[in-house]
Amino acid sequence: MTILAIDPGNTQSAFVLFDSDTRDVCDHGKIDNEKMFALIDRNTDELPADACVIEKVEGYGMPVGAEVFETVHWSGRFAQHWIARRDESSLHRLPRKAVKKYLLGKSNAKGADSMIRRALCEMFGPTEELAFGTRLKRGPLTGIVRDQLAALAVAVAFDGLRKQSGMVLF
Predict the structure, then answer these.
(1) What are the pLDDT digits (tens) for 73-105?
(2) CATH code (residue 65)
(3) Sheet order of strands, 51-56 included
(4) Is 164 exposed, middle or buried (0-12, 13-18, 19+ CB in 10 A)?
(5) What is the bridge-based pairing of β-strands 12-19 and 24-32?
(6) What DSSP designation does 57 have?
(7) What is the pLDDT of residues 97-139, one digit of tens each?
(8) Does 167 fall in a domain?
(9) CA distance 128 to 167
(10) Rounded distance, CA 12 to CA 67, Å?
């Protein structure tokens, strides 16, 4: 199964196209939100995604700024755009807490970003050098940075949770 995972942002969003069968990252990047529509619009030969999973914005009981509301707006637009072109059952949203729970075993981890990075390194590496590669030798996560790692974490967690629950997507 190929998963398009999106970590939405208020002006730009990160994405990863992840093949869960081969555990390969087929494509990744961070692009302007308007360009994400073009990515979703690619025909199935160019973007052979079987599912789209978008990181779901959750409230934590703290005040938030306009950027968060703009991110929620874009998340909804991406979801609607996917549904207009593909089967609605292939769209999923996964909260960050579920990603942390799956990858780290707990949803309230402090310093979760670095711990998630470490967990992904162990899955794809098992060391950071093997996962991200070096100047002379590429690794499976070469070039994947910051928000793209968050998108990869969403894809990996979604795939794992899907397999655990026996969820059928199509």
Answers:
(1) 999 999 999 999 888 999 999 999 999 999 999
(2) 3.30.420.10
(3) 24-32, 12-19, 2-7, 51-56, 91-95
(4) exposed
(5) antiparallel
(6) P
(7) 999 999 999 988 788 999 999 999 999 999 999 999 998 999 9
(8) no
(9) 31
(10) 11
Dump strand ranges (E) for 50-167. 51-56, 91-95
Tokens 């869960």 correspond to what residue?
20
| Count of structural domains, the chain | 1
Q: Name the region of 97 (left: φ>0; alpha: ψ -120 to 50; beta: rest).
A: alpha
| DSSP-derived 3-state class of residue 24 | strand
Q: Which domain holds residue 72?
A: 2-162
Q: How far is residue 30 from each of residues 62, 106, 131, 164, measured CA to CA in Å?
A: 27, 28, 20, 29
Distance of alpha carbon 118 from alpha carbon 97, whole angstroms = 17
